[in-house]
Design brief:
2 domains; 5 strands; cysteine-type endopeptidase inhibitor activity; Nuclear Transport Factor 2, Chain: A
């Protein structure tokens, strides 16, 4: 009986320590992890999300990224990006082409707001999707 208790105790201690090390060394395995906003995959996902966002609004002016608040990625069947951004209205109308667009300097016209985009990218099959958008 004593051997059984020692084995069980060691098993419990091992399980707890394994969990602590897994979480302490980079987060939950398979879960989202922070990524540099300048990462090429993040930039591609963000540009795609903003274009889709602008297509879906009834606004006269295009929105642009004012600030990237947070960027995370998760390895799935491809890559899933979770990007929180502050957007603001630009000086360009939606139907304009080849213009350099800047964010309105007047806060009343810029009307900044925050969005969280979830983008799923599978570049080997040329597929990218805006899975979720919360603004």
């Amino acid at each position: 009986m004593r051997v059984y208790r020692n084995v069980m105790l060691k098993l419990v201690v091992f399980t707890v320590l394994a969990g602590v090390f897994a979480v302490g060394l980079g987060g939950l395995v398979g879960g989202p992890s922070d990524v540099d906003v300048n990462d090429a995959g993040v930039q591609n996902a963000l540009n795609f999300a903003v274009v889709q966002h602008n297509r879906g609004t009834n606004d006269l002016y295009l929105s642009q990224v004012a600030q990237v608040v947070k960027a995370e990625r998760q390895v799935v069947a491809g890559m899933k990006y979770f990007i929180t951004v502050r957007l603001a209205k630009s000086t360009c109308k939606k139907n304009s082409t080849n213009e350099v667009c800047s964010i309105h300097t007047d806060p009343e016209k810029a009307r900044p707001y925050q969005c969280k985009f979830t983008v799923w990218s599978r570049p080997w099959i040329s597929d990218i999707q805006l899975v979720e958008e919360r603004c």
